[in-house]
Design goal:
heterodimer; A: 231 residues; alpha/beta; Rossmann fold; 9-stranded mixed β-sheet; two-stranded antiparallel ribbon; 11 strands; B: 74 residues; alpha+beta; Mth169, Chain: A; 3-stranded antiparallel β-sheet; elongated
Chain lengths: 231, 74
């Protein structure tokens, strides 16, 4: 796999994401490079990560401006071609604002920025990103955000549940932000786009207390040929 | 040129965490009997005309899933 990790002005987790991409399948020599927000050529890339942070200062709404970055049009084409796209935290917000994932992320119910280790339960969603997990399995990753309250209007929420698009839920009693149905992450209908608020890229080394996050990056494998398309 | 003011507020029925935080602070400051505080945004702008303001709101200034908006033209 050759991963591209987007970098917007204001991104701050892109280095950990690069590290996670390289470490995940080190035996296969996976590589990763940064993709500046003005780049539009994703050719040669097999997977995209949109990292956490505060793209463009998160002005207006988290992810609202990043959605219009030139690189995001290329990511939309990449996703439409079936390429795996992972949005973490701010990246999840960007994917929701872009319409590549359903729903929206609101300010945490408690209005506070939270930062702590927590547990997620793996959902039944069908996605390459989940291929190394069992549904119902518990994993431990950091929760680190201020606007992570997942919301979707009732009809949309019902559709997300019916289609088994929930990738991760906060473990019982651990919902840190008021997310509906304890939703921590969702996939698109095709399953190749995953967004989640918690941070798997910060849970890839034993010294940090958990390496569960690594398995998300181990899921996608290179397709028959590079799916990257030039915009 | 026209001057427009766009009011953006959380949709009814969605918990407005900011509004709630403000509301809870009021009694401590001696403001009693104030409820249903909601916090939104105002965007002021000048434009050649109002033709695309609606589109601007739908695509960028507001997220129609969670926010309502009103355009006032001065």
């Amino acid at each position: 796999m050759i991963w591209g990790v987007l970098q917007f002005p204001g991104s701050c987790d892109e280095r950990d994401a690069l590290h996670a991409c390289r470490l995940a399948r080190v035996e296969f020599g996976d590589q990763a490079r940064l993709v500046w927000h003005e780049e539009t050529d994703l050719s040669g890339l097999d997977g995209i990560v949109i990292p956490g942070g505060f793209s463009y200062g998160d002005y207006l709404r988290a992810g609202a401006i990043a959605r219009f970055a030139p690189a995001m049009s290329a990511v939309a084409d990449f996703a439409a071609a079936g390429g795996p796209v992972l949005g973490i935290c701010n990246g999840f917000q960007v994917l929701c604002e872009s319409g590549l994932l359903p729903g929206a992320l609101l300010t945490n119910t408690g209005t506070r920025f939270i930062c702590r280790q927590g547990e997620l339960v793996v959902g039944e969603a069908d996605s390459p990103f989940l291929s190394r997990f069992e549904p119902g399995e518990k994993i431990s990753v950091p929760f680190k955000h201020e606007s992570g309250r997942f919301y979707a209007p009732p009809e949309l929420l019902a559709r997300i549940e019916e289609n088994s698009q929930v990738a991760f839920r906060y473990a019982p009693g651990q919902n840190p932000n008021g997310s509906l149905n304890d939703i921590a992450g969702v996939i698109n209908e095709a399953g190749n786009v995953l967004g989640l608020m918690p941070h798997p890229e910060h849970a890839v080394e034993a010294f940090s207390g958990s390496t569960d996050g690594l398995r998300i990056f181990q899921g996608p494998t290179r397709a028959a040929g590079p799916v990257g398309v030039a915009a | 040129m026209i001057t427009a003011r766009v009011l953006i507020r959380p949709k009814e029925g969605i918990l407005d965490a900011q509004g709630k935080a403000v509301e809870r602070a009021l009694p401590a400051l001696g403001f009693e009997g104030i409820e249903h505080v909601r916090v939104g945004r105002i965007v002021e702008l000048r434009a050649e005309n109002a033709d695309r303001l609606e589109e601007l709101c739908e695509k960028l200034l507001a997220n129609p899933l969670i926010e309502d908006y009103e355009i006032e033209i001065a």
